[in-house]
Amino acid sequence: MPSLTNEQLPALAAALIRLRGETLGRIAEATGIRTANLSVWLRGKEQVISAKRLVGLLHHLGVEGGRLRTDVLHPWHDRGALDDSKLVLGTLLANTQPVWLFQDEQPGLIKTRFLLAGDVLIRMEIEPGVDQALDLVTVVRVDRVITTPTALAGVPSESLESARSALLALAEQAAADVGDEELLEGLMFRLSETVDSNIASPQGWQRLEQALRFAFNAGAQPADIARVVDAHFRSGGNADMPPTE
């Protein structure tokens, strides 16, 4: 991914402002940049804004070091041809990041989608335009599409952790429902990325994967496995876990 240039910044910032539904007044309060100066700069006209304030502006809009931040859930709303999403994702997502798109089958005018790109998580509400109604899969490279009957509008968005956990649980359910071995392997990789690498050895993760495969093949549901694990650690006793070998 090439470095951002000063010429790219106004258009990128303007797209992020629209995606996030920000106002210039709210941004001015958060960054200390005068509304009039910000308005002129966003139109691509010459305006002196210090580098420090530009860094603060981009951080407020969800960008740090030329990439989308990984410590927040990005709430976006786009419509029609999804031009703003296309610009931001094409500029800020590294080509090497695995990209998962979560979609549901719920009816309605506004569609809720989640995009998990590496450690970046975006919650997207997509509204059709007058003459176009595109979806994210048509404007961004996607490695895996996960379709769930559960309404994604109900996925908790109070924090990055709660949204990520809920989405991985939905993906786990989808893998169990269709017997998708490849998706299960991807889930295990994602789960191992979310915890401190010192918690378990590679052999430990392999045993966990084997146990989950055994359970799913035997017809267990994610909720069944969760109850077993919960009972084990709450009681301090030995849970009846499926064999791993």
How would you describe this protein?
Helix 6 (160-178) packs antiparallel against helix 7. Mean pLDDT is 81; it is low at 195-202 and 239-245. Helix content is 45%, strand content 15%. The strands form 2 sheets. It has a 5-stranded mixed beta sheet, sandwiched between helices. A two-stranded antiparallel ribbon has the order 1-2. With 245 residues, it is an alpha/beta fold. Strand 1 (63-64) and strand 2 (67-68) form a beta hairpin. The chain has a domain at 168-235.
Topology, element by element:
Layout: H1 9-20, H2 24-31, H3 35-42, H4 51-60, E1 63-64, E2 67-68, E3 73-79, H5 83-92, E4 99-104, E5 111-117, E6 120-127, E7 144-148, H6 160-178, H7 181-193, H8 202-217, H9 222-235
Parallel strand pairs: 3-6, 4-7
Antiparallel strand pairs: 1-2, 4-5, 5-6
Helix pairs in contact: 1-5, 6-7
Features:
245 residues; disordered C terminus; alpha/beta; 9 helices; DNA binding; single chain; two-stranded antiparallel ribbon; five-stranded mixed beta sheet; elongated
* Helix-strand category: alpha/beta
The unreliable regions are: 195-202, 239-245
Strand content: 15-25%
- The first-to-last residue Cα distance is 43 Å
Q: How many DSSP H or I helices?
A: 9
How would you sum up the global shape? elongated
Helix content: 40-55%
Spatial sequence of strands, sheet with the most strands:
3-6-5-4-7
Indicate the radius of gyration in whole angstroms: 21 Å
What is the mean predicted local confidence, pLDDT? 81
Largest sheet: 5 strands, mixed
Number of strands: 7
Topology as H/E string? Answer: HHHHEEEHEEEEHHHH
